[in-house]
């Protein structure tokens, strides 16, 4: 009896030590995971993922049809550079033309990578013109075997257009990342502009706010919305058809003229 009791007691002590050890190890692993710092490439990957997908400005156009249009923004991965930078294809089309073959008003490549270490930002987002934009029309909607190959995409990256430096938003804010081009902007000659600027916010609900504006030599704004940024929200999977409805927009010819004069940047 004494031997059996002593054996049971020893096993109980050993089992307690094992449980405590496992708890300590689990706690250490959890603490490590919680306190693990986000790397520069983690930021870049999150921004690329947030930009990707199909988004619409329908809600904003419904609230203020005099100043905003229902646009479809579609972005998807297109290639990866040798240094790990992500190349995304981006296009924008007006939902007012949903009954006709969609010709994008804006097409470009985005390159997403960490900010240079000397800058106080997290992600560098640069836009580039496309060498032959017609070949990339509806790129994201095509099966992957019908798209230009990644090496072809890299070869079709043309002139640099703009660069936005994004920073992680402080806790408590609606956004995940926000940033802008330098105040002096980048050269742009469309519609009488001398330069253009851009502001971008990535919200926690995967919404994108973007404000592109063009200015002449005297600092007068000559294109882009003046009231505030465009607000693009992800489209619910079951309501894509509704998101493309033209709302109460005027006839196509009239809307096209308004878009050309107030929003669209043709690179």
TrEMBL record:
InterPro entries attached to this UniProt entry: CpcT/CpeT, CpcT/CpeT_sf
Keyword Lyase: yes
UniProt entry keywords in alphabetical sequence: Lyase
Superkingdom of this protein's organism: Eukaryota
Ranges in a coiled coil: none
Family matches, as Gene3D superfamilies: CpcT/CpeT domain (2.40.128.590)
One Gene Ontology MF term: lyase activity
Family according to the record: Belongs to the CpcT/CpeT biliprotein lyase family.
PANTHER family assigned to the protein according to its UniProt record, in alphabetical order: CHROMOPHORE LYASE CRL, CHLOROPLASTIC (PTHR35137:SF1)
Name this protein carries in UniProt: Chromophore lyase CpcT/CpeT
Organism: Trema orientale (Charcoal tree)
